[in-house]
Fold this sequence. Notes:
Elements: E1 7-14, E2 21-39, E3 50-53, E4 58-75, E5 83-92
Antiparallel strand pairs: 1-2, 2-4, 3-4, 4-5
Amino acid sequence: MHPDTVRAAVYGTDPDAQPVQLLATVTAEAEAHVEGFLHVSDHNEDSDFSVSLINDYTYEAEGTRPVVLHFNARFDPDHENAIELDLEKATPLGN
């Protein structure tokens, strides 16, 4: 994760929590290592992913991609170090 890209935006509170907690979204840029399978028709020759042909229709692929990590967060405003983060999604950087 690139610490200088971390951004947070508070959007509300959880009044049922004791003490009341702030709710926020947190984003950060990171390099994600991706491994998986790819149909041969989806393979881009210009990609920097390494691929191995598994059969006539499938590649096994792996590589890294810059992504933006999106988290749902909650924290007690009186104890800023006590933060709960739940990863919501990862999107390609620039999308």
